[in-house]
Hints:
This protein is mainly alpha-helical.
Amino acid sequence: xxxxxxxxxxxxxxxxxxxxxxxxxxxxxxxxxxxxxxxxxxxxxxxxxxxxxxxxxxxxxxxxxxxxxxxxxxxxxxxxxxxxxxxxxxxxxxxx
Length: 96
């Protein structure tokens, strides 16, 4: 079950970002200011890029900032899961 949710956490924001960019490429380029930054956000911080792009259209308020901070934490958790996910398997490998 954890593997499936991890796959959705990795695939879902990138797919949503790709669909949003495909529907309005000029709008996303204006919001993010650079295609390179948008591509880097798609690779490294997809949740943050997606939430920032959706929030920026109407101006960033305090609720939007809360969502952006949550998205940064979600991206950090995604990277952290990959880093610490195999730790148990590696430590049990050494004990055998």
